[in-house]
Amino acid sequence: MLRVLAVDDEEPALAELLYLLRADPRVHSAEGATDANEALRRITRALEGGEGAIDVLFLDIHMAGLTGLDVARLLAGFAHPPLVVFVTAHEDFAVKAFDLKAVDYVLKPVRRERLAEAVRRVAERAASAAPPATVADRIPVELGGVTRLVAVSDIVYAEAQGDYARLHTEDGTSHLVRIPLTTLEDRWQDLGFVRVHRSHLVALHRIDELRLDGAGMTIRIGTAEIAVSRRHASRVRELLMRHP
Asked: 3-class DSSP state for residue 69?
């Protein structure tokens, strides 16, 4: 059963599309969004939650702000993006759409039979898809109302802030994401990140200095000094000794 997000900035067209999708027995749920940024936020929240991830995006092309093609390009950077079906009144973007790995290209006005065929293709593709990747090499963040993708390789350390985490990057910027630090630790352990404290996760290869003194252990990453808890001290020291 498919979880669907339909995106169209024309509300009557969106309502009609949702009506048709919800009538299809292969669709578990169908929700709507009226702009690309809202759609990207919903997809990100679903991925962060780990359950109820969106399987397919039924996406208009011409919208205010980001176009449907822009959204598809951004989704290509996700570890496990939803499938994409374009739903548009314009015939002349089909080549670009399929270059972006779209499953189907449905022209408006949408006919029930044509939409059912698109859902069939999505269901077949979803059933044959490989298991989702366990490690993402980029992470979506909000910046001035726009969702952008930050490479994990640019992140030097992450700092817990309640149920959120603040990501500090090599260029000195930081981004607050709604993901617990424990979740990032699980996702990024294969990318060289190590927990040094209950409130800090650091990229091992970014550590510039380790200091031992009477108060315990401290590491330096650029200008940031981060305390290492006793619980994690021996593992951090061992990993640093083994790290090339």
From this structure: helix
**Residue recorded with tokens 């790995």:** 101
Query: Largest alpha-carbon pair distance within the chain?
Result: 74
Mind giving me the DSSP string for 104-159? EEEESSPPHHHHHHHHHHHHHHHHHPPPPPS--SEEEEEETTEEEEEEGGGEEEEE
Q: What share of the chain is helix, strand, coil (3-state, %, to 5)?
A: 35, 35, 30
Instruction: Dump pLDDT digits (tens) for 184-214.
Output: 988 888 788 999 999 999 998 899 998 887 7
Distance in angstroms (rounded) separating the CA atoms of residues 7 and 35: 6
Residue 35 CA neighbour count, 13 Å, CB half:
8
Position of tokens 């979740």? 183
Structure tokens at 126: 């979803």
* pTM of the predicted structure, to 2 decimals: 0.54
DSSP string, 39-57: HHHHHHHHHHHSSS---EE
Distance CA(157)–CA(159), nearest Å, equals 7
Note whether 30 and 4 are within 8 A (CB). Answer: yes
φ/ψ of 107, rounded to 5, equals -90, 145
Asked if 89 and 63 count as a contact pair (C-beta separation under 8 A), the reply is no
Cβ–Cβ under 8 Å, residues 160 and 198: yes
